[in-house]
Amino acid sequence: MTLLSVNLNAVAQLRNRRDLPWPSVTGIARIVLEAGASGITVHPRPDERHIRRTDVFELSALLRADYPEAEFNIEGYPSEDFLELIEQVQPQQVTLVPDDPAQATSDHGWDFVGKGNFLTSVVQRLKRADRRISLFCDPDAGETGVLAAKASGADRVELFTGPYGACYDNPERAEEELAAMAATSRAALAAGLGVNAGHDLTLDNLPGFQAAVPGVIEVSIGHGLTADALLMGFAEATRRYIGVLAA
Q1: 50, 71, 75, 177: which is the annotated catalytic residue?
Q2: Is 43 a catalytic residue?
Q3: What number does CATH give the domain 3-246?
C-alpha cells in the first residue's frame, strides 16, 4: 500500500495571515497522524511564508515524543542554511528540490545530469543509515534522468505530479502525463530507486495515478487534502485519502 505523508505548508500559511497561534501546525499534525497518516511533510522556505523554523523543531519534538513510528520528511533547496537545519533536526527523509527562493511552490524537477556533481556532494553530506534522500523528479525524466539520480547516491526520486494535477479538465493530456510518469517510475525501479510522488494530487485524480504509475511508496499531499479538510475536517480528509491509496 502507498503511504500518505500530509504536507502542512497550507496550514502554516493560513496561520501566518494573523499574528496568532492558530490553526496550530502541531495540532493538525496530531489530528492527521491519529487518523492514520504515515508521516508529516514540510517545506521550510527562507522567507518563512508558511512553515517557520520553529515549526520544524516543534514538529520534530512531537513526532519523537508521541509518534515515533511516523516519518518526518523535510523538503527544500539544499542551501547551507537548509543543510544545517537538517543536521540539527535529523528527519528520517529529506527531499531535495531545485526551487528558487522566490518561487510560489515547486514547479520542476532536478536536472540530474547537469547538476550531478552538486547533488552527489549534497547527498554524501546528508545521507545516513537512518535517513533516506529523495530527489524531486520531472515526470518525463525517463531512464537517462533516473540513472543520473541513482549515481548521486540518492535513495528515491519524488515524481512531480503537478502537470498531471493541472489536467483536471483535459483527460487526453492527463493520459499523456500518466504515461510519462509510469515510464519514469519503471525506470527508477529498474535502477534500484524508490519512488515517491507529490503535487496537486486529489481524491479525484489519485485513483487514476495509482492505477497507472507502478511502485509508488509514498505520496505527499497538502493543498488538495487541506482544501477537502475545509469541508470534511482533517481527520476525515486523511481517512479518505488513505482509503483511495489502499484501494
Answers
A1: 75
A2: yes
A3: 3.20.20.70
